[in-house]
Amino acid sequence: MTQVGQVTARALMRRLAVEQSESRIPSIMAAVVREGQVAWQGGRGRTAGPPGGEPTPGTQYRLGSITKSMVAVVVMRMRDEGLLDLADPVGKHLPGVRAGEATVAQLLSHTGGLTAEPPTDWWERTPGVEAGELLGRLGPAHVKHRPGRRYHYSNLGYGLLGELVARLRGVPWLEAVREEVLEPLGMGDTTPRPRSPHAVGYAVHPYADVLLAEPEHDHGAMGPAGQLWSTAGDLARWAAFVAGDTGGVLAEGTLAEMREPATVDDGDAWTGGYGLGLQLTRHAGRRLAGHTGSMPGFLATVWADPAAATGVLFLANATSGVGRTLLFDLLDILEEHEPRMPREWVPGAADPDLLALTGLWHWGPAPYTLRLLPDRGLALGPVSGGGRASRFVPQDDGTWLGLDGYYAGETLRVGPDHLDLNTFVFTREPYDPGAPVPGGVGDWHTPTT
Questions:
Q1: Confidence (pLDDT) at 446
Q2: Residues 6 or more apart from 54 whose CB is under 8 A from it?
Q3: What is the pLDDT of residues 340-381, one digit of tens each?
Q4: Is residue 1 predicted with pLDDT exceeding 50?
Q5: For residue 213, which of 234, 199, 230, 193 has the smallest C-alpha distance?
Q6: Model pLDDT for residues 294-328, shown as the tens digit of each residue
Q7: Which pLDDT value is given to residue 267?
Q8: What pTM does this model have?
Q9: Using H for helix, E for strand and C for coil, what is the string for the chain?
C-alpha cells in the first residue's frame, strides 16, 4: 500500500483535526487515494454520545446522494447493453408516468425539469413510500422547468431512475447496484441500513455544544436518492473507480462520458456542474468528479482527479458544518508535500506510413500539426495552440474517429495528399491547388493600389 511520509501525514491530520474542532463535528473520517491505493487516512472525534468510540476505516456513515452515482452506473451499463438509449423519454420505460417527457440523460444530469423533492412528507426524515404510490402522486405540477432548459437538482428524478433500473433488470434497484457495482468493486461494507460499527447521526445545536440524534429510515422508492451507508475503506475504492480504476464494472469510455459536463450551475466560468450521475468541480487547475452527500445526521463527499489518479473523501456524522474546502485543502497539502511524479517517457514503435503523415498541415491558411499517439492514434491541433484540436483513434475501416474537442465523434480520412475531416480538407501547403477543395483558388500575390 502506498503511504505518504510522516510530515505529509501530520499536515493532513492537522487539517482534519482543525475541521473537526472548529466546525464542531462529532466525528469525521477522511482518506486520500493515489493510483488506486489508500495513501493516507485519518479519523477524529467520537462516533456516538459519551464515551463513544473513535472512527475507523470500517465505521459506517451514511453516504446520502453519493448513492445516486452508483445507481447511475447501473443505468449506464444498461445503455451499453442496448436496453435503453439515453435519449429515451423516461415514460418509454415507465409507462403512464406524468413526468415522462424528460429523457434518461436529463434525469441523470438533473436537467429534466422535475421538482427537487418528491410529493411526500419530508422524505429524508420519514419512512418511504413504495414506487407505485410515488409514481401515482406525480402530476404536471411536479414539472417545474422545460426538460433540458436548466440545471435543477432533483431527488425525485433519481427515484424514477431507481424504478427504471428495477423494471429493466427485473430486480429491486438495490439488488442491481449490489450485484453490478458493489460486489465487483469489493465494497462489501456498503449496505442499505446501518450495521455495527456505525456512527450515530447527530445535529449539533447552533448555539451550544449539545447534540440531537437524527432519525434513520428505509426510504422506499426514494432510496436511490440517498439510502446507502458505507465506510472510508469502501469509499476509497469508489474514489479509485471514479478516477479510472473501473475493475471491469464499466467501460473506460463510458466512465469518461459520465465525467463530461452535461450542465453547469454557476455560469460561463464554471466551477461546479454535473455529468451523468457525477457532480463536477474545478479547483487549482484540477477537474474533479464525484459527489457530495447529505442526510439527517450525516455528511459525505468524494472527489476524484482522473488526470492524477488521485481521490479524496470524508464521512462525518453531522447534519451540517463540514466546510467545502476541506477536501480541496487535503489535495493541496498532498500536492505541496509530495507532488506526483510524472510517468517516465519511453520511446515506442511507429508505423512508417503513419509517421509520414506527421508534421505540418494547413486548414486554408491556418497551420496545424499532426502528431502520432500510442496505439496508432493521431492528434491534430493548431500551431498557435488555440482553436480546434482533437485526438483520433483508428477504426477498422481505415478511418479515424474523433475522441474529443470540436471533432469529437467526427471521421478523419487520409487521402494521398490531403486529410478529409468531415468535409474540411487539410493540405501540406496553404490552399494547395491540387486539393479537391478548395483547390485552384488562384495564386498568392501582392495587392496593387
A1: 87
A2: 27, 43, 44, 45, 46, 47
A3: 888 898 998 899 999 999 999 999 999 999 999 988 999 999
A4: no
A5: 199
A6: 999 999 999 999 999 999 999 999 999 999 999 99
A7: 63
A8: 0.91
A9: CCCCCHHHHHHHHHHHHHHHHHCCCCEEEEEEEECCEEEEEEEEECCCCCCCCCCCCCCEEECCCHHHHHHHHHHHHHHHHCCCCCCCEHHHHCCCCCCCCCEHHHHHCCCCCECCCCCCCCHHHCCCCCHHHHHHHCCHHHECCCCCCCCCCCHHHHHHHHHHHHHHHCCCHHHHHHHHHHCCCCCCCCECCCCCCECCCEEECCCCCCEEECCCCCCHHHHHHCCCEECHHHHHHHHHHHHCCCCCCCCHHHHHHHCCCCEECCCCCCCEEECCCCEEEEECCEEEEEEEEEECCEEEEEEEEHHHCEEEEEEECCCCCCCCCHHHHHHHHHHHHCCCCCCCCCCCCCCHHHHCCCEEEEECCEEEEEEECHHHCEEEEECCCCCCCEEEEECCCCCEEECCHHHCCCEEEECCCEEEECCEEEECCCCCCCCCCCCCCCCCCCCCC
**pLDDT band at residue 50 under the 50/70/90 scheme:** low
End-to-end CA distance of the chain: 75
* Amino acid identity at 77: R
User: Residue 36 contacts by C-beta under 8 Å, 6 or more apart in sequence?
Assistant: 240, 243, 245, 309
φ and ψ of 92, to 5 deg? -65, -35
User: From CA 14, how far away is CA 280, in angstroms rounded?
Assistant: 27
User: Which candidate, 48, 419, 89, 407, places its Cα nearest to that of 211?
Assistant: 48
Give me the mean pLDDT over the 332-346 stretch.
Answer: 92
Q: Amino acid identity of 23?
A: S
Phi-psi region of 208 (alpha: psi -120 to 50; beta: other; left: phi over 0): beta
Q: What percent of the chain has pLDDT over 90?
A: 86
268-297: per-residue pLDDT in tens? 667 889 999 999 999 999 999 999 999 999
- Residue the block writes with cell 427515484: 159
Cα–Cα distance measured from residue 429 to residue 143, given in angstroms and rounded to the nearest whole number = 56
Sign of CA dihedral 394, 343, 360, 389: positive
Residue 119 confidence (pLDDT): 95
